[in-house]
Every structure is written in structure tokens, then in C-alpha cells.
Amino acid sequence: MGEVEEERTVLLERLGRNPLNPRNHAGDLAETVQSLRSTGQVQPLTVVRREAFLAVHAGQEAALGGAVYVVLDGNRRLAAAREAGLSALRVDVRDDLAASRAALLEAALVANMHRLDLHVMEQARAVRELVREHGHQRLVAQQLGKTAAWVSQRLKLLDLAPDLQELVERGELKVKDARRIGAMAPGLQHAAAEQAMSGGRNGSQGRSRSVARPAAYGSAPGGPAHAVNPVNTPGAAVDAEDPVGRFGEYVESAVDFANSMHGIASAYRAAAAADQGAADALVARLFERLERVTRHLPPPAPPSAG
Asked: What angle do CA 177, 136, 214 make, to 5 degrees?
């Protein structure tokens, strides 16, 4: 159990944003501001004391200013509270999370990922810092509750040229394409990125052009236009060197899709209020499409007794 301070309400002027928070921008706060004004604070912020933070992150005194507590989980809520005109927030003090640099970074990274707050490039940079702290990608994956393939894919994004990383952040270059392009030699990346983006804009004309891609991705002859899907195409070729990693890419694509569905329940309720029959038909279509994919997979193995 982490230490919880007896005084649970803290003035905003005593709370400081984590200067090493993986999330660079607070984003759109309008919804959170409105929620704080109408409903109030539902969940306390997770903080560490200034002294505990500086013990593992010396040199951050100026960044903290006069803050007595550093917010690990709730930086967006802190920003929204200031915009909403609140004077204080409830907090849980968890100095145990400041046991090491890695523990602090993991706490902030996991909190942001669970709330879908982190852009994929921010995730990648945070993962890189964790790998530097732990020294091994597999250990980082275990600490975050992710697969080794997920960690590897995030790190591949950092092998992109800086201007291509900016395209990913702006949403102009899709993450699935960026992961593939990040594994290419620097001299091939810009042409591949241009092809990937033109293919998305120009339909079949863009897709008809071939893109150089490394053999490790198992592309079929003729480039992406003729690539096969080993999940639903019998006898399709898979990556002979790393079949687990290749399947991991499919899993992470599915996870990315699931994360993008944040808000689907509220969208369904609004649609059902307007036309229940149409909304239910769309739900049926969604389940049917998902079943088409999952029918090709075996059921998960039962947990081992030991």
C-alpha cells in the first residue's frame, strides 16, 4: 500500500505538473473543464512530494517552481481545474512511486496509456527512456504489461527521420505504415512515406506503385498491392525469421483499433436515441465483421494449473 496523506485536499498553487510527464501537451480540456464544473472531482490525483521527486530527478527544481507536490497521474485534470477556476483538488500521496527514476516514469506512462492520453510518439519516447533505465526491452514489456512486440514496434518509430516523426504526430503518416518504414534504411524512408501517404489519398493509383520494404516484413511480390493477410488467407506466407513478431503486429493493430473505439458506447446511445433500429443494425454489422476475423483463431488455452 502506498502512503496516503491525511490532508486529502491541496491548494492548486501547491501542485506542480510533472516536468518529465511523457505527455507533452494537455490537449483539448473543454470536456474535462465542464465535468469539473458540473460534477466536481471524481477521482483524486496521484502525487509525490517534492523532496521524493527531486531525490531521483535532481536538477528539476526550476521546473517545479514553488510546487510542494508533483502530479504523476492527473496532469490534465490539474490543468483543467485551473481553467475551471477551482482552488483545490483532492490528492493521494504515493511517495513509494518515486523509489527510482524508472518507477516514476512507469507510473506516469501507464497512467497516461490507460486513459488513451498519450500519442504513439510520446509512448515511443517514454518507452525508450525505460529501456535505458532497465537495459532490456523484454523487462520493460513485463513492467508495462505489454508484449515484447509492442515495445519493439514503438522503438521502431524512433528510427524514423525527425520530419517523418512529425508527420506521425500530425496524423499525416499512419502508425502502421510508420512502424514498417522505421525498419527501413534512412535512404529509403522518405520515398516509402510518400508512397504510403499518396496511397491513402489517391486510392488505386497510389497503391499501384511499389514501395521498397525489408524482407523481414514478408511482403509478397509486387509490394503492398499484393501483400497477403496470413490471418484469413489459407497458405499465406508469414515472416520465416520472426513469426511471433509478425503475429504480434496483427495483435497490436487490433489493440490500436480497440483503443480508437473510446467513446463507442456513448455514440451508440446517442444513435439509438435517434433511431434504435438503425443503431442496432450497425452493432450487428460490427459483431459480424469481428466474428469473420476471430473465427480463424483458436480459442485461448486454459490457464495452467501450476
From this structure: 30
Q: Which domain, by its residues, includes 234?
A: 152-260
Whether the predicted pLDDT of 223 surpasses 70: no
Same domain? For 285 and 246 the reply is no
* Domains identified in the chain, total number: 3
Q: Helices 243-260 & 175-182, crossing angle to 10 degrees? A: 150
CA distances to 42, 174, 177, 207 from 202, in Å: 46, 15, 16, 8
Q: Is 68 a domain residue?
A: yes
Same structural domain for residues 239 and 270?
no
Final residue belonging to a domain, choices 32, 67, 98: 98
Task: Tell me: do 165 and 254 sit in the same domain.
Answer: yes
**What are 68-112's pLDDT values in tens digits?**
999 988 888 899 999 999 999 999 998 888 777 777 777 767 766
91, β-bridge pairs: 45
What are the CA-CA distances from residue 176 to residues 78, 90, 155, 158, 203 (Å)? Answer: 33, 40, 13, 14, 17
Q: Which residue has the cell 475551471?
A: 84
How high is the pLDDT of residue 257? 67
Q: Is residue 301 part of a domain?
A: no
DSSP summary character for residue 58: T
Same domain, 173 and 212: yes
Q: Are 126 and 157 in contact, with CB atoms under 8 Å apart?
A: no
The answer to whether 196 and 206 have CB atoms below 8 angstroms apart is no
Whole-model pTM?
0.43
Question: Which CA distances in Å does 62 have to 57, 72, 184?
Answer: 12, 18, 40
